[in-house]
Amino acid sequence: MHENKYPIVSHARDCRFLALRSLQNPQGRSRTGLYIIEGIRHLARAVEHNSPIESVFLEPSVLSNPFGQKLARRLRNRGIPAIRLSHQLYRDLTLAAEPQGIGAILRQQWTPLSTVRLEPNSLWLAVESIESPGNLGTIIRTAEAAGASGILVLGPDCDPHDPATVRASMGSLFSRKLVRCSQREFTSWAKSNGVAIVASSPNGLMDYKALRY
Hints:
The protein is 34% helix and 18% strand. It folds into two domains: 3-107, CATH 3.30.1330.30; 113-210, SPOUT methyltransferase, trefoil knot domain (Alpha/beta knot). It has helices spanning 15-22, 26-32, 40-48, 66-77, 87-93, 133-145, 163-169, 183-192; strands at residues 8-9, 34-38, 53-58, 82-85, 102-107, 124-128, 150-154, 177-181. By secondary structure, the protein is an alpha/beta fold. The protein starts with 7 loop residues before the first strand and ends in a 21-residue tail after the last helix. Helix 6 (133-145) links the parallel strand 6 and strand 7.
C-alpha cells in the first residue's frame, strides 16, 4: 500500500478530519455541496459511474482487501488526493460495524428539473418527507432495481446524501439522476409533460408491475 505516501491524520482537531466530520451533518453538506461515502463497494460503484471524487481517506491497517488496495492505488494514480486516518479517527467517522478501511469525499450532483427529458415509458420516483435516512436509501436501491431513471426529491427534508442513506442505497445513488424541486414545481412539471402519477402505500393491494402505465 506504500502507507508512507499518504499524509497521516491522527488528531481529532486536525482541520482535514474536521472537514470530514462536518459532512456527517446536513449543514456541512449543504454548505459545501459535498458528502462522504465509506466502503469498497460504494467507492467502486462511484468510480464505475464517474461520480466526482474530491479526495480519499484510508486506514491501511484495516484495508486488507486486495481489490480495495488496487482501487486506492488507481485513484492515487489519477491524482486524487488522499489522507491516512488513525485507527480511532477512522472508527469515529464510519457507520459500518466492520469498516473496510477506505472512503471518499464526493461532490453532490443535482440535475435541474428544467433539463429533464422524459423518454417514452420512462419511470421516475418522487419522494417526500421520508423520515428515516435508511429507508430513503432502500427506496433509492429499489428504484434502481425497478429501472427508474431518477429520483425527484420534493422539498428540503429528504437528504439522499445523508451517510445512512448513502450506505443503505448500496451504490444505487451513483447510477440515478437526482432532482431537487418543490411539490408545486413537480406538479407543474408532471402536468406539462403528461406524466401519469402513481402513488404508493404500505396498504396497497396492486403490485406496481401489474399496472399499465
